[in-house]
Predict the 3D structure of the following.
Amino acid sequence: MKVLLLNGSPHKNKCTFTALSIVADQLQANGIDTEIVHIAAKPVRGCSGCGSCRKNDKKRCIYLDGGVNEVIDKLESADGLIVGSPVYYASPNGTVLSFLDRMFYAGGSYMSNKPAAAVVSARRAGTTASLDAINKYFTINRMPIVSSNYWNMVHGSTAEDVLKDEEGCQTMRILADQMAWMLKCIEAGKQAGIEVPAGEPKIATNFIR
């Protein structure tokens, strides 16, 4: 089993990466493989709503910038997903939102029913709003959200500050334990013959009468 962790900070080895690394280390201690992918090295264009990704069999974005399709490739075989982001103006990093817009619109079918979690880092505030924004991607795609003993956040201005946030670090470790437990439960269910829900064809309505 493997969990893919997306680092949405433009600062590759800073606060968000530190939090994700704690999660990854604890997942590995539980026998779960991990991979951290840095998705914010360069600006990522937003989704244009062109719909081209829905017209090709591979379900990939027509735009090739930002590594979106490469991550979708990895998500095909991953069993769980964790998205990490710093807090910018009480919201996830704009690059993260653009990346997730395109990733979920094009490749959402590869993520349905896979456990997921959001992790955010901030100097001070805006964390719960940022968690809520990321979690919405999961809940629209039938992904069970993995929780911890507190909201999945760490605080600090540097990686060293994050490591001093004892409660935040514990939250990351327990999040990893919960993710590992859920993945093992899902695998045990499959072995017992319990399949994921088949779902229904999407009904899309609007508010115009």
